[in-house]
Amino acid sequence: MEKLTITASDGYQLSALYASPDRESRGSIVISSATGVKKEFYIHFAGFLIGQGYHVLLFDYRGIGGSAPVDLRTMDAYMHEWGTKDMNAVVDYLVHEKGLKEIIWLGHSVGAQLVGFVDHAEHIAKVVSVNSALGYWRYFPLPWRWLIWALWYFVGPLMVKVYGYGVMSKIGWGENLPRNMLLEWRTWCLNRSYFRESLTELLDAGQFVRFTRPITAVYMSDDFIANDKTVPLMMGFFPNSPHQILKLSVREHTRGKVGHTGIFRKKYREELWPVLLAIIEK
Fold it and tell me: Per the database record, which ranges form the Serine aminopeptidase S33 domain (predicted)?
Protein backbone atom coordinates (compact mmCIF):
# COMPACT_ATOMS: atom_id res chain seq x y z
CA MET A 1 0.00 0.00 0.00
CA GLU A 2 1.11 3.55 -0.74
CA LYS A 3 2.17 5.61 2.26
CA LEU A 4 0.34 8.93 2.51
CA THR A 5 0.24 11.99 4.72
CA ILE A 6 -3.17 13.58 5.09
CA THR A 7 -3.37 17.06 6.57
CA ALA A 8 -6.31 17.87 8.85
CA SER A 9 -7.99 21.28 8.97
CA ASP A 10 -5.84 22.35 11.92
CA GLY A 11 -2.64 21.35 10.12
CA TYR A 12 -2.13 18.07 11.96
CA GLN A 13 -0.41 15.42 9.84
CA LEU A 14 -2.06 12.00 9.71
CA SER A 15 -0.29 8.83 8.61
CA ALA A 16 -2.26 6.78 6.08
CA LEU A 17 -2.01 3.87 3.64
CA TYR A 18 -3.86 3.62 0.34
CA ALA A 19 -4.14 1.17 -2.53
CA SER A 20 -6.22 0.69 -5.67
CA PRO A 21 -7.29 -2.65 -7.16
CA ASP A 22 -5.59 -4.09 -10.24
CA ARG A 23 -8.97 -4.75 -11.84
CA GLU A 24 -12.14 -2.75 -12.35
CA SER A 25 -13.13 -0.96 -9.17
CA ARG A 26 -16.14 -2.11 -7.17
CA GLY A 27 -16.02 0.84 -4.78
CA SER A 28 -14.02 2.64 -2.12
CA ILE A 29 -13.65 1.66 1.54
CA VAL A 30 -12.21 3.53 4.50
CA ILE A 31 -11.29 1.35 7.47
CA SER A 32 -11.60 3.55 10.53
CA SER A 33 -9.82 2.01 13.51
CA ALA A 34 -10.93 1.14 17.02
CA THR A 35 -9.51 3.08 19.98
CA GLY A 36 -5.78 2.56 20.37
CA VAL A 37 -5.46 0.31 17.31
CA LYS A 38 -2.90 1.13 14.64
CA LYS A 39 -3.84 1.05 10.97
CA GLU A 40 -1.37 -1.79 10.33
CA PHE A 41 -3.60 -4.13 12.35
CA TYR A 42 -6.08 -4.04 9.46
CA ILE A 43 -3.57 -4.39 6.63
CA HIS A 44 -4.29 -8.06 5.84
CA PHE A 45 -8.03 -7.43 5.71
CA ALA A 46 -7.34 -4.37 3.56
CA GLY A 47 -5.38 -6.59 1.17
CA PHE A 48 -8.34 -8.96 1.01
CA LEU A 49 -10.66 -6.07 0.09
CA ILE A 50 -8.24 -4.75 -2.54
CA GLY A 51 -8.17 -8.23 -4.06
CA GLN A 52 -11.95 -8.09 -4.25
CA GLY A 53 -11.75 -4.91 -6.32
CA TYR A 54 -11.93 -2.08 -3.78
CA HIS A 55 -9.91 1.08 -3.26
CA VAL A 56 -8.94 0.99 0.43
CA LEU A 57 -7.61 3.64 2.79
CA LEU A 58 -6.28 3.03 6.30
CA PHE A 59 -5.25 5.82 8.65
CA ASP A 60 -4.03 6.52 12.16
CA TYR A 61 -5.90 9.03 14.28
CA ARG A 62 -3.85 11.79 15.84
CA GLY A 63 -1.90 10.43 18.80
CA ILE A 64 -1.92 6.85 17.47
CA GLY A 65 0.73 4.87 15.57
CA GLY A 66 2.30 6.86 12.74
CA SER A 67 0.24 9.93 13.68
CA ALA A 68 1.66 10.15 17.21
CA PRO A 69 4.41 12.51 18.40
CA VAL A 70 7.59 11.08 19.87
CA ASP A 71 6.54 12.16 23.36
CA LEU A 72 2.81 11.79 24.08
CA ARG A 73 3.20 14.07 27.09
CA THR A 74 3.50 17.01 24.69
CA MET A 75 0.11 16.34 23.07
CA ASP A 76 -3.07 18.20 24.09
CA ALA A 77 -5.51 16.57 21.64
CA TYR A 78 -8.88 15.12 22.63
CA MET A 79 -10.56 11.95 21.43
CA HIS A 80 -13.52 13.75 19.85
CA GLU A 81 -11.03 15.31 17.39
CA TRP A 82 -10.72 11.90 15.76
CA GLY A 83 -14.21 12.61 14.45
CA THR A 84 -14.36 16.38 14.12
CA LYS A 85 -10.97 16.68 12.39
CA ASP A 86 -9.36 13.39 11.38
CA MET A 87 -12.35 11.64 9.81
CA ASN A 88 -13.26 14.80 7.94
CA ALA A 89 -9.70 15.07 6.63
CA VAL A 90 -9.86 11.52 5.28
CA VAL A 91 -13.17 12.06 3.47
CA ASP A 92 -11.95 15.35 2.00
CA TYR A 93 -8.72 13.70 0.82
CA LEU A 94 -10.50 10.86 -0.98
CA VAL A 95 -12.99 13.20 -2.63
CA HIS A 96 -10.62 16.01 -3.66
CA GLU A 97 -7.31 14.20 -4.15
CA LYS A 98 -8.43 10.78 -5.37
CA GLY A 99 -11.71 11.78 -7.00
CA LEU A 100 -13.64 9.11 -5.12
CA LYS A 101 -17.22 9.35 -3.88
CA GLU A 102 -19.84 6.93 -2.61
CA ILE A 103 -17.39 5.88 0.11
CA ILE A 104 -18.14 2.84 2.24
CA TRP A 105 -17.16 3.71 5.81
CA LEU A 106 -16.10 0.55 7.65
CA GLY A 107 -15.85 1.72 11.25
CA HIS A 108 -14.48 -0.54 13.97
CA SER A 109 -15.76 0.44 17.43
CA VAL A 110 -15.02 4.17 17.88
CA GLY A 111 -14.39 4.29 14.15
CA ALA A 112 -18.16 4.11 13.65
CA GLN A 113 -19.20 5.91 16.84
CA LEU A 114 -17.72 9.24 15.71
CA VAL A 115 -18.69 9.13 12.02
CA GLY A 116 -21.58 11.47 12.81
CA PHE A 117 -19.01 14.27 12.90
CA VAL A 118 -18.33 13.99 9.16
CA ASP A 119 -19.41 17.32 7.66
CA HIS A 120 -19.91 16.12 4.08
CA ALA A 121 -21.68 12.85 4.76
CA GLU A 122 -23.18 13.00 1.29
CA HIS A 123 -19.91 11.46 0.10
CA ILE A 124 -20.51 8.38 2.29
CA ALA A 125 -22.67 5.74 0.63
CA LYS A 126 -23.15 3.72 3.80
CA VAL A 127 -21.57 2.82 7.12
CA VAL A 128 -20.70 -0.70 8.20
CA SER A 129 -20.24 -0.55 11.95
CA VAL A 130 -18.24 -3.42 13.46
CA ASN A 131 -18.53 -3.97 17.22
CA SER A 132 -19.44 -0.34 17.79
CA ALA A 133 -21.22 0.14 21.09
CA LEU A 134 -22.11 2.56 23.84
CA GLY A 135 -19.24 2.29 26.32
CA TYR A 136 -20.88 2.86 29.72
CA TRP A 137 -19.15 0.48 32.12
CA ARG A 138 -22.27 -0.77 33.91
CA TYR A 139 -23.61 -2.19 30.63
CA PHE A 140 -20.84 -4.79 30.42
CA PRO A 141 -21.29 -8.33 31.80
CA LEU A 142 -19.45 -9.65 34.84
CA PRO A 143 -16.54 -9.99 35.51
CA TRP A 144 -15.55 -7.48 32.81
CA ARG A 145 -17.73 -4.79 34.37
CA TRP A 146 -15.56 -4.57 37.47
CA LEU A 147 -12.30 -4.70 35.52
CA ILE A 148 -13.45 -1.71 33.46
CA TRP A 149 -14.60 0.01 36.66
CA ALA A 150 -11.08 -0.45 38.08
CA LEU A 151 -9.56 0.94 34.88
CA TRP A 152 -11.58 4.16 35.03
CA TYR A 153 -11.54 4.77 38.77
CA PHE A 154 -8.00 3.70 39.66
CA VAL A 155 -5.68 2.50 36.87
CA GLY A 156 -6.38 5.24 34.32
CA PRO A 157 -6.03 8.24 36.65
CA LEU A 158 -2.93 6.66 38.21
CA MET A 159 -1.27 6.22 34.80
CA VAL A 160 -1.91 9.85 33.94
CA LYS A 161 -0.53 11.00 37.29
CA VAL A 162 2.61 8.84 37.13
CA TYR A 163 3.45 8.88 33.39
CA GLY A 164 1.65 11.95 32.11
CA TYR A 165 -0.35 9.90 29.57
CA GLY A 166 -2.28 6.63 29.32
CA VAL A 167 0.19 3.75 29.21
CA MET A 168 -2.38 1.40 27.71
CA SER A 169 0.24 -0.97 26.30
CA LYS A 170 1.16 -1.97 29.85
CA ILE A 171 -2.32 -3.38 30.45
CA GLY A 172 -2.80 -4.89 26.99
CA TRP A 173 -5.28 -2.27 25.75
CA GLY A 174 -3.60 -1.24 22.53
CA GLU A 175 -1.60 1.90 21.82
CA ASN A 176 -0.81 4.47 24.48
CA LEU A 177 -3.11 7.49 24.65
CA PRO A 178 -2.36 11.17 25.30
CA ARG A 179 -3.61 12.49 28.61
CA ASN A 180 -6.66 14.40 27.39
CA MET A 181 -7.79 11.54 25.17
CA LEU A 182 -7.73 9.05 28.00
CA LEU A 183 -9.50 11.41 30.39
CA GLU A 184 -12.18 12.31 27.84
CA TRP A 185 -12.76 8.63 27.06
CA ARG A 186 -13.00 8.00 30.82
CA THR A 187 -15.63 10.73 31.16
CA TRP A 188 -17.69 9.17 28.40
CA CYS A 189 -17.48 5.65 29.82
CA LEU A 190 -18.52 6.75 33.31
CA ASN A 191 -21.64 8.40 31.90
CA ARG A 192 -24.80 6.39 31.28
CA SER A 193 -25.40 8.38 28.08
CA TYR A 194 -21.76 7.97 26.96
CA PHE A 195 -20.71 11.10 24.97
CA ARG A 196 -24.23 12.47 24.56
CA GLU A 197 -23.58 15.14 27.21
CA SER A 198 -20.43 16.20 25.38
CA LEU A 199 -22.47 16.54 22.19
CA THR A 200 -24.93 18.75 24.02
CA GLU A 201 -22.50 20.89 26.00
CA LEU A 202 -19.25 21.08 24.01
CA LEU A 203 -19.81 19.93 20.44
CA ASP A 204 -22.41 20.18 17.69
CA ALA A 205 -25.21 17.84 18.71
CA GLY A 206 -27.02 18.60 15.48
CA GLN A 207 -24.40 16.82 13.38
CA PHE A 208 -25.51 13.40 14.52
CA VAL A 209 -29.14 14.34 13.95
CA ARG A 210 -28.29 15.50 10.43
CA PHE A 211 -26.38 12.29 9.64
CA THR A 212 -28.72 10.24 7.42
CA ARG A 213 -26.49 7.66 5.75
CA PRO A 214 -27.60 4.01 6.20
CA ILE A 215 -25.80 2.01 8.89
CA THR A 216 -25.40 -1.73 9.25
CA ALA A 217 -24.24 -2.51 12.78
CA VAL A 218 -22.48 -5.88 13.09
CA TYR A 219 -21.32 -7.35 16.36
CA MET A 220 -19.90 -10.67 17.51
CA SER A 221 -21.75 -12.84 19.98
CA ASP A 222 -18.67 -13.19 22.20
CA ASP A 223 -17.82 -9.48 22.43
CA PHE A 224 -18.49 -8.23 25.95
CA ILE A 225 -18.20 -4.59 24.86
CA ALA A 226 -20.59 -4.75 21.91
CA ASN A 227 -23.54 -6.66 23.29
CA ASP A 228 -27.32 -6.91 23.01
CA LYS A 229 -27.78 -3.72 25.06
CA THR A 230 -24.89 -1.49 24.03
CA VAL A 231 -25.12 -1.84 20.24
CA PRO A 232 -28.76 -0.67 19.94
CA LEU A 233 -28.04 2.16 22.37
CA MET A 234 -25.18 3.34 20.16
CA MET A 235 -27.42 3.31 17.11
CA GLY A 236 -29.69 5.66 19.03
CA PHE A 237 -27.08 8.37 18.48
CA PHE A 238 -28.04 8.35 14.79
CA PRO A 239 -31.82 8.93 14.95
CA ASN A 240 -32.23 9.75 11.25
CA SER A 241 -30.03 7.03 9.78
CA PRO A 242 -31.84 3.93 8.55
CA HIS A 243 -30.08 1.04 10.22
CA GLN A 244 -30.11 -2.66 10.85
CA ILE A 245 -28.34 -4.64 13.56
CA LEU A 246 -26.74 -8.03 12.86
CA LYS A 247 -25.44 -10.29 15.61
CA LEU A 248 -22.98 -12.86 14.28
CA SER A 249 -22.91 -16.12 16.17
CA VAL A 250 -19.27 -17.08 16.67
CA ARG A 251 -20.09 -20.77 17.02
CA GLU A 252 -21.73 -20.86 13.61
CA HIS A 253 -18.53 -19.74 11.89
CA THR A 254 -15.50 -20.71 13.96
CA ARG A 255 -14.31 -22.54 17.06
CA GLY A 256 -12.01 -19.66 17.94
CA LYS A 257 -12.66 -16.66 20.15
CA VAL A 258 -13.34 -13.54 18.09
CA GLY A 259 -14.23 -10.88 20.67
CA HIS A 260 -13.91 -7.16 20.00
CA THR A 261 -11.07 -7.16 17.46
CA GLY A 262 -10.62 -10.73 16.22
CA ILE A 263 -12.73 -10.54 13.07
CA PHE A 264 -9.95 -8.58 11.35
CA ARG A 265 -7.22 -11.10 12.15
CA LYS A 266 -5.67 -13.05 9.28
CA LYS A 267 -6.59 -16.42 10.80
CA TYR A 268 -10.25 -15.70 10.07
CA ARG A 269 -9.70 -15.07 6.37
CA GLU A 270 -11.66 -18.16 5.35
CA GLU A 271 -14.22 -18.25 8.15
CA LEU A 272 -15.28 -14.66 8.79
CA TRP A 273 -13.94 -12.35 6.09
CA PRO A 274 -16.37 -13.61 3.41
CA VAL A 275 -19.21 -13.04 5.89
CA LEU A 276 -18.13 -9.47 6.51
CA LEU A 277 -17.59 -8.89 2.79
CA ALA A 278 -21.14 -10.05 2.07
CA ILE A 279 -22.43 -7.53 4.63
CA ILE A 280 -20.33 -4.77 3.06
CA GLU A 281 -21.67 -5.57 -0.40
CA LYS A 282 -25.32 -6.04 0.56
Answer: 24-151
User: How many domains does the structure of the chain reveal?
Assistant: 1
For residue 68, what are the domain limits? Answer: 2-136+205-281
Determine the Cα–Cα distance for residues 110 and 14; give it in Å rounded to an integer.
17
Query: Does residue 100 register a pLDDT over 90?
Result: yes
Give the amino acid at 209: V
DSSP state of 252: H
CA 52 to chain centre: 22
- Please report how many Cα atoms fall inside a 13 Å half-sphere around the Cα of residue 282, on the Cβ side: 16
CA distance 114 to 204: 12
Whichever domain contains 46, its CATH number is 3.40.50.1820
User: What's phi and psi for 28, nearest 5 deg?
Assistant: -130, 135
Kindly indicate the confidence band of residue 205, based on its pLDDT and cuts at 50, 70 and 90.
confident
Distance CA 239, CA 209 (A): 6
In a domain, 167, yes or no: no
Chain centroid to Cα 44, Å, comes to: 17
Determine, yes or no, domain membership for 151: no
So what's the pLDDT on residue 27? 96
